[in-house]
Amino acid sequence: MAKKVRVRFAPSPTGGLHLGGVRTVLYNYLFARQQGGDFVLRIEDTDQSRYVPGAEEYIYECLKWCGLAPDESPLAGGPFAPYRQSERKELYRQYAEFLVQEGKAYYAFDRTEELESFRERFKTAENPSPQYDHKVRQQMRNSCALTFEETERMLADGVPHVIRIRMPENETVTFTDMIRGEVSFNTGLVDDKVLLKADGMPTYHLAVVVDDYLMKITHAFRGEEWLPSAPVHVLLWKYLGWEADMPQWAHLPLILKPDGNGKLSKRDGDRLGFPVFAMNWTVPGTNDLTKGFRELGFMPEAFVNMLAMLGWNDGTDQELFTLDELKQKFSMDRVHKGGAKFDFEKAKWFNHEWIKKSDVARLKTDVKQIFGQHGITATDEKLDKVIALVKERCTLLTDFVEQAKFFFQTPQQWDLDAIKPKWNDAKQAFFGDVISYFQNATNWNVPTDLENGFKELAAAKQIKPGEVLLPLRIMLVGGKFGPGVFDIAAVIGKEETVLRIKAVLEKL
Ligand code: GLU
Questions:
Q1: Could you give the CA distance from residue 386 to residue 365 in angstroms, rounded to a whole number?
Q2: Structural domain containing residue 180
């Protein structure tokens, strides 16, 4: 019987979630949903020095915002709890000790200053940062170099120590990556990674293998930056006797800087003026804020859609996908090998398309919230009309403020410079007539009637409608933008329309 598919996203809670991390979540999620499998969120917090308070909560909120809920997590619980590695601390030592007994790992007693002097001693021009590996192992203070008795004595005396993997001197480790095909490494080039730290905490390398095994993970998708660690992990699966259960790996391509080469970093975002984190992240202590896509006004649907396309396509020109469509169409074998350059203009294009294609009811919740932050209050009925009128003009959800504020608040400033040069007494008089016409209009809710009446009035005064439409717009809106001016008049109401015309007439 085929094993039930189980995938995991295993972040370390060290800060805001980079968009590459969210894309890893997404590919995991899509694969799990497609295969009728489980999607596990495991918090990898064994490196206590890098732990940042609030980062875990941020991850939950981010997954919720994106609509990518895990089936099992520290919050949701599940059959393999606990899902936070720090709470599983006690169970890792036995595996590290087993590896020592098998001769696949060893105790290392080197003190910090010894490690520093080792680096100094072995440093050369070609090798500026020497690694702790088979070449130097015998010259260090560890159970490979010491006698059995010495080691036993030091252990009995409680001398602080770590456990390191003993990487073979010259073996080839090969595994099949779902994206890259067969990948091989020479073990001689990899250092003897620490598996268990002096405080008894496992390192990432040991914990990831033990937990993927215990949690019955069948497929492990993670960023390409983890590829160099893969030989260590593959060997651990083998040495622990679990090779038959090793998950299928997929190392996802990097998301690259828009300019130049290399992985897109937070610094690139700061430098080029766009977010790299999913949501705002404030560093505890310094209160340093890094902006996120959510607060900038991205819809989660657009954000997720954009991320899906950074490294995958369905083989056609289609670019807009709902999450449901992605669940049907996504396939690991169409994930690209090469990295994808991030393009913020394209990201905004996705958002604009999503705002256009979303219905008013969907947009209303977000727009209401953003309006609330800007002190704009609106009835649902009016909001419905306004959203329908301006959504085509909004690239970001936050654009609704600029594009729609005048529906709810009388403008305080007007682009009078756009009116004044061509203003004359005839136009002043014409708007006096417009006020009376509007005041007597009985069909206020029919914008085309208002428009026809306005144009007839202009014709009667031998004024070209084009010459008075822009002034009318500026009177109602404040500037040269917005949807149809009679649509605006219909929504703001007869009284307000007249008041706004009068207010500007006094200034001309
Ligand atoms: N904890 C690792 C990270 O922060 C997870 C890598 C993996 O998925 O194996 O990215």
A1: 14
A2: 87-252
Per the CB < 8 A criterion, the answer to whether 479 and 415 are in contact is yes
Residues in contact with ligand 1 by the CB-under-6-Å rule are 10-12, 44, 204, 208, 222, 226
The count of domains in the chain is 4
Burial class (CB in 10 A: 0-12, 13-18, 19+), 388: middle
Shortest-distance atom of ligand 1 to CA 226: 6
Cα(221) to ligand 1 centroid in Å equals 9
Per residue in 85-109, pLDDT (tens digit) is 999 999 999 999 999 999 999 999 9
pLDDT in tens, 172-182: 999 999 999 99
Sheet holding 38-41, edge to edge: 38-41, 6-9, 219-223, 248-252, 172-177, 181-186
Q: How far is the CA of 222 from the centre of ligand 1 (A)?
A: 7
**Phi and psi at residue 35, to the nearest 5°:** -95, 5
CATH of the domain at 363: 1.10.8
Query: Does the annotation count 266 as an active-site position?
Result: yes
Q: Is 94 exposed, middle or buried (0-12, 13-18, 19+ CB in 10 A)?
A: exposed
